[in-house]
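seq as requested:
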Amino acid sequence: MRSGADRLRGTRVLRAWDRYRAARGEVFAGGMAYHAFLLVLPALVIGFTVLGHLLTGDPELRRRLVENVNATTGVELIGIGQGDRGVVVLDELFTAATLRATGVLGGVLFVLAALGWLNATREGVRAVFDRPPLRPGPVTRLADLLVLATLGLVLLSAAVAEVVLTSATDWALTGLGLGGSTTAEAVLTSTGVLVVLAVDSAVLVALFRVALGRLVPVRELVVPGVIGGAGLGVFKALGGVVLSTTAGSPVALALAVSIGVLVWMNLTSRILLLVAALAAETAADHGYLPLLGPWDVLELPEPRTAPRRGRGEVRRATAPIETAGAAPGSVPAFGTRSEDRVALAAGATLGVAAVLGLGTLHRAATRMRGLLRRA
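struct tokens:
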């Protein structure tokens, strides 16, 4: 007869924790956070470079852009005039020489860091699912580059769409006689939070799909994705609190931003891999993966080249995945070509969802601050 401790260890949540630890999730999360941290600065540089070129002849729009950035973070990251406090000054960001130099350097660093982050995330998720590491080939790299290009185009489109949607929302509220109403703002804020949750969940599901290909059906990833989206939403909400505590000192602010972003990304990466472990246990309970017991040790296979497969049969009894070319009792390996096609499609969807989530989070945070100030 099993004791209470054994039954507790046999629950899906604790089995997911055991799987995460056995797969060395902390190590993979550290690598993911490192690449993500290197990705932040080039992304900001590229964003300001593009906007700087577009807004070179309109100082008023540049000023409003900086005020929007400062309002979003809750602190004065960028000073508008020479006497203002801030980590950097507006005029220093939008000089022609700065835009040219930072644009080229930021573009190169962004591509390298983004490719590294995509690969680190892919390998971390595959390790949690007990899949062998991939050796990215030219097709995989090309797919990742196309995903990054799609993300860049979507970012530009989302910047315009956010302005249009914000103006349309204000116009609609004013037309209904609800402009400035606390009830209307609360409803819009709640709606924004739900949209952010949906977008974060979709992003996690898409990431798992990119990493795993067709190993696990999408329906097995939905519930873990929603749980992970809620966890990510909590960490996003807490991000501005750390920044607001250091608003009085530019030096402390710079250190807090650097350290805080690194810690936040490490925690986010851990959440992502923990959710991946929960998804793996869910798939195992439904017969798609070998079940990892509470006392088992996850053994990661060595990197190897997947054998060429013919058209094998699909089993539906215990493991409804293709099994041709796999050793008995092991999870079969898929060819890289099919995974690359899935990565290309799912990665583009991931880029769109991430951008929409950032815009919605920004609008929700702005409305929430307005409610707190009026309260």
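The radius of gyration is 23 Å.
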